[in-house]
Amino acid sequence: PSVPSRHGAVKAEDTFKTSPFHLDLWFYFTLQNWVLDFGRPIAMIILPLEWFPLNKPSAGDYFHMAYNVITPFLLLKLIERSPKTLPRSMVYVSIITFVMGASIHLVGDSVNHRLIFSGYQHHLSVRENPIIRNLKPETLIDSFELLYYYDEYLGHSMWYIPFFLILFIYFTGCFTPVAEQSRMPVAAVLLMGPSSLYYWYLVTEGQIFILYIFTFFAMMALVMHQKRKGLVLDSNGLFLFYSFIIALLLIAGWVAWLWNDKILRKKYPGVIYIPEPWAFYTLHMNNLHAAKE
Known about the structure:
Elements: H1 23-46, H2 59-80, H3 88-114, H4 130-133, H5 139-171, E1 175-176, H6 186-206, H7 209-228, E2 232-233, H8 235-257, H9 262-267, H10 277-292
Antiparallel strand pairs: 1-2
Keywords: Membrane, Transmembrane, Transmembrane helix
Pfam families: CLN6 (PF15156)
InterPro entries: CLN6
């Protein structure tokens, strides 16, 4: 008999397959997230400006380029290891959209972060920034707002929606009827800390709490639904689920810590108040460094 496509329609015989903990993939995934995503702006700030002139790509841009190639590759490898066959078309469209959104973000984020060297302050809106509001003609301000839109809204949406969709698609295959397989190895427990901390950074800096919480609720609903069938999460599912829970606690602690910050409150109005770490840095850490100098 012919072998079905790895990402074809769901088959009945796939239901009770299990897979061991993917230590290699989760480790590489977490490592490259920290180095290539979180490390992008740090590399841009600490490396000498003479190496990367302001009219050329920065070190962070090259990090972003590598991220845009490595991350979709790792996501595809993760999907391939799922014990359950998954919808091929949805996976492919999600990966294509992810790459396009991350590439749009690369350009907008590159310019926005280079503006830091000219005095741009991330805790202020585009029009409130001193280096922007005095531009002539004033239509240039509209161009910078368009750039900000591509960076913070369109780029983030096309990047993060397929990213979490792929993780959820993978999560749907992380169930087993064998209770003994619903436990994490020691390596998974150790890796869960940096993984959770990265999701905290992703949600706060990307301003995607709504997307994140809906994904978490969908995962929780699926867990309860599968539990009625006598199925429990395997080690990979537990790792992903617990990472989301810990990240949610970190987000709550972050918001509580900055709850009374009046300047950040003005930057992030509305019901959902989740300040960006880089806005906090330009507001407080830059001032701290200036005071020390």
